[in-house]
Design a protein that fits this description.
The chain is of the alpha+beta class. The protein is built from 2 helices and 3 strands; from the N terminus they run E-H-H-E-E. The longest helix has 21 residues.
Length: about 90
């Protein structure tokens, strides 16, 4: 299996970082209250930024200390998939 390990980076836009951080807080809350451990992010059309958003959410989750696996699977493309392991060690 061809795994890609991504270097973690954050956008320089503080508004975007705040939005991702708020989403991570909500995910932590869902995990604590309801033991939700998997989340799906979808887009209704190609090229709407779903992969970009997913990568940034995965980075924020990894930076917050959660073990994070991002699987980018576009069902519109036949037999193509990407597998990313995003992690951060303190």
């Amino acid at each position: 299996m061809n795994n890609k390990v991504l270097d973690l980076y954050r956008p320089e836009n503080e508004t975007l970082n705040d939005a991702f951080d708020r989403l991570v807080v909500n995910i932590h809350h869902q995990n604590r209250m309801y033991n939700h451990r998997a989340f799906v992010l979808t887009g209704c059309e190609p090229m709407v930024g779903t992969t970009t958003i997913s990568i940034n959410v995965a980075i924020s989750l990894a930076l917050s200390g959660l073990k994070t696996i991002l699987i980018d699977g576009d069902l519109r493309k036949d037999g193509k998939y990407k597998f990313y392991k995003v992690f951060h060690t303190k």
